[in-house]
Design goal:
23% strand, 8-stranded mixed beta sheet
Length: 278
């Protein structure tokens, strides 16, 4: 399957520019539960010089700053960066490209990305750039969504669309790489020159009122899932939502459903520069 980096970049950029305003009240509720484990994996502590790549609204960077880290955030969406600066004035937020980081070699002790790497057109270049800006023995950690067989919220949507809609009609270009399994992430980290790499599944829950709220959150707060849902025939949506609702009932707690969600948490260490050159 051919990959067109510029098509991916244009698609993702337009989508995140659109989603920025709604993200806080929609999809952020799914991504923020993983921030603490991500920062722990990167060894973030008071005094850590941290770069948060694809920082979005800087929830992860804000948590790190609260812990005493010195934080820079980077996002290619001007809309996201603008909101992040307003919400987190304690962080230096730049608009920029993960594949061409605007920082000197060895500037950071840690680099993190909470659900950002799989949106980059060429993740291998972004990871190599992360290694470049890390000091020797600096640590990288990132999260990506786990495969649907590990991820109930995603499986509910994909299964309902497959039954009552059409999964092939989305106009999203193919992503720059597959990152939904631990082995995918390990291979990418090793390919970028990281050592002491590891990857594991981490789990959380996403509380929502009902299936309609899930679809609304995905439509307004994501890019690829939004494209899939928006491409469905409007006449099929009631059946899709009803199918999700039926299967989501097993996760109901009072007036909410608590959908299990899962991510791959990957980490690695930057070698000495002369070791990386060997």
């Amino acid at each position: 399957m051919s990959v067109n980096p510029e098509a991916i970049r244009a698609f993702e950029h337009a989508g995140w520019q659109r989603a920025a305003a709604a993200y806080e009240d929609t999809f952020a509720r799914a991504t923020t539960p993983f921030a603490s484990a991500l920062l722990d994996a990167a060894g973030v502590a008071p005094g850590t010089r941290l770069l948060d790549v694809a920082c979005g609204l800087a929830h992860t960077g804000g948590a790190a700053a609260t812990c005493g880290a010195t934080v820079h955030g980077l996002d290619f969406s001007a809309a996201m960066a603008r909101i992040a600066r307003a919400r987190h004035p304690e962080i230096t937020v730049n608009e920029g490209d993960a594949e061409a980081l605007p920082y000197p070699d060895g500037m950071f002790d840690a680099v993190v990305s909470n659900f950002g790497i799989h949106h980059v057109p060429r993740p291998e270049i972004a990871l190599a750039e992360a290694r470049r800006v890390l000091a020797t023995k600096g640590r990288i950690a990132f999260t990506v969504w786990a495969a649907p067989n590990e991820n109930v919220a995603w499986a509910l949507v994909f299964d309902a669309v497959a039954r009552y809609g059409d999964r092939s009609v989305s106009d999203a270009p193919p992503p720059g790489g597959s990152f939904d399994r631990p082995e995918d992430c390990l291979s990418a980290l090793k390919g970028a020159g990281f050592t002491q790499v590891s990857a594991r599944i981490v789990r959380a829950e996403w509380p929502l009122a009902n299936a309609q709220a899930l679809i609304a959150a995905l439509l307004s707060g994501t890019v690829r899932m939004a494209a899939l849902i928006a491409a469905q025939d409007p006449s099929a949506l009631p059946a899709i939502i009803a199918e999700i609702e039926r299967h989501a009932e097993r996760y109901r707690r009072g007036n909410q459903i608590a959908l299990p969600i899962a991510a791959v948490l990957a980490q690695g260490t930057a070698p000495r520069k002369d070791d990386a050159a060997k």
